[in-house]
Structure formats: structure tokens, C-alpha cells
Design goal:
Elements: H1 2-29, H2 31-41, H3 46-69, H4 73-96, H5 114-132
Helix pairs in contact: 1-3, 1-5, 2-3, 3-4, 4-5
Length: 134
Amino acid sequence: MNILFGVVFVLRLVVGIIFLIAGVVKLKSGSSQFLSAIMGYELVPKYVATLLASFMPWLEVVIGGLLLLGLWSQFSAIVGATLLLIFSSGVAISLLRGKDNDCGCFRTVTPVQWRLIYRNLILIGLLIPVYAAN
């Protein structure tokens, strides 16, 4: 049982740090850069993109913090996995449309790529034991 606890602890740390860094980077960069990335997907109207650019980084920080602290781990795993699925869907739609817009993942401008979807699916896979262990 201690090995399982250790594995889940490490998984929480890995995914929590990624969410925390992604959110903090977006907050430090300002919402206009993230808003521009969201608008590049051409999936939502500007007023929705503006709301997303305002609260999404905070949500990433909160989920990352909760995972790091081990608080509300099941809730955090579900919300984190849902965010990763939404992000992956947006990237997939852009790729299928033939676009090369900025993914909006971190500070650097990174065009959407299939590897981002694979990365997100791996992160979702890491959250499954976090969810199941509680």
C-alpha cells in the first residue's frame, strides 16, 4: 500500500506542477497573449474567449495547487482531466482544419501539433490513478 501511495504522490506532483506552471506563466504574460491564442482557434466568440482568458489561468493554478497539496484529489483529477480533454479537442480541431495557430500552452508560441494531444492524453492517464486512489 505504501508503494501505491508513493506512486500516486509522484503523479499528483508531476501533473500539479505542470498545471501550476502553465497557469502562472499565463498570469505573468497577461490575459491579452492568452486571449490571442484562444482566438486563434476560432472556436468561440470573443466575449467567451475573453472570459476564458481571464479565469482559465486561475483554474489551472488552483487545480495544480490542489494536486500538489493532495487536497480534493478526486475533484482535482476530474477537473484537470476535463481541461486536458478540452485543450486536446481544440488542438485536434485546429489540426484537422489545417491551422497552425499558437496552442496557448505556456509562454512560448508553440503551433498546435499532434504531440500536444499525446502529451495531454499521457497527463490524463497520470490522473487516473490519482482519482482511483482516493
